[in-house]
Amino acid sequence: MVKQFKHAIVALDNSPMDINLVKYASMFSSVVGLEQLEFIHIIKDLQYDDSEDIPLDEKIESSIQELVDEHFKSDTNFKIQVKKGNPSQDLLEWVKIKHADLMFIGNKDTLKGHNVLGTKLSNIAPCSLLFVPESFNPEIKKVAIATDFSEQSLSGVEFVKEAMPSNIESELIHVFVVPSGYHFSGKTYEEFSEIMKNNAEKDYQKFIKKHDLHGINCGFILDDDDNPADKILNQSKVHEIDLLVVSSQGRSSWAGLVLGSTAAKILKINRAIPLLILKNKKENLSFFEAILKV
Questions:
Q1: Model confidence pLDDT, tens digit, residues 273-294
Q2: First vs last Cα of the chain: how many Å apart?
Q3: Which of 71, 78, 130, 289 could form a disulfide with 22 if both were Cys (CB 3.0 to 4.6 A apart)?
Q4: What pLDDT score does 50 carry?
Q5: Residue 182 sits in a domain of what CATH number?
Q6: Taking residues 12-31, what's their average pLDDT?
Q7: Per the similarity annotation, which family is this (predicted)?
Q8: Which backbone phi and psi does 141 adopt, to 5 degrees?
């Protein structure tokens, strides 16, 4: 079995969010067996002051080292990197240099700061991204995978099946809709929604049979207001999910690099559940390299 994640980057910003990122990276590394971690902080050019008695990068590196010593309990090898530059551009360069499969990013809600960097990276990073909220369960017991039963969404199921311990409970979440022209059939909205649910259940049976996924249950949710992201998140909260997994949903290499609309909306409105967005790094890398040259 080939590991989906071997080398990961933890994007730190010298804020209280860093504690959460270090703790979650420690737990997740142990669960999936990461081989190498890079704790990276990029100092913006305008923040750098060479007149300090102790260089700012040394101060930050020392602070990160203390944080890691206290909160990182995994046996995974790690390095600490503090560099001067542009956070988004330099983090992308590090993804390429270190052949990173995964990047941990803070997902702030009440803490000072914003999530612009995470949103930007979600659309241009070739690797998978794990968005860590301000609070989370200290262990992963239940995982949900959003799926439309396409080949593109299979990556989430494969990750859970191959990388997560067998004692972790997993479930699929599928959102279905009633087409706008349903009334031409002469049936009511409720009647047609049952038809669409039955169709979704048939697709589910074909999906699990084709990929030998027997034993994983699926929740079917009607999207009655054109907001599938909200339905997926609500289902995850009701079922007390510890990790929500979605694929980038691209049906081409370029679309696989840039998030699909549902994944992007989940990222935008979710502040409560750790969110893993899976991307195919191999397919996306050539597009990523082209972006870096622009």
A1: 999 999 876 655 454 454 444 4
A2: 37
A3: 71
A4: 62
A5: 3.40.50.620
A6: 95
A7: Belongs to the universal stress protein A family.
A8: -110, -35
Mind listing the pLDDT tens digit for each residue in 49-74? 666 677 888 999 999 999 999 999 99
Residue 2 lies in a domain: no
Boundary-marking domain end, from 109, 133, 157: 133
95 and 23 co-located in one domain: yes
Tell me the pTM: 0.90
Tell me if 76 is assigned to some domain: yes
Residues 222, 253 contacting (CB under 8 angstroms): no
- Distances from the Cα of 174 to the Cα of 82, 189, 222, 259, angstroms: 42, 19, 9, 18
Residue among 60, 105, 61 at smallest CA distance from 80: 61
Which structural domain, as residue segments, surrounds residue 52? 7-133
Looking at the structure, tell me whether residues 118 and 67 fall in a common domain. Answer: yes
Q: Which residue has the tokens 């983090």?
A: 91
Residue 207 lies in a domain: yes
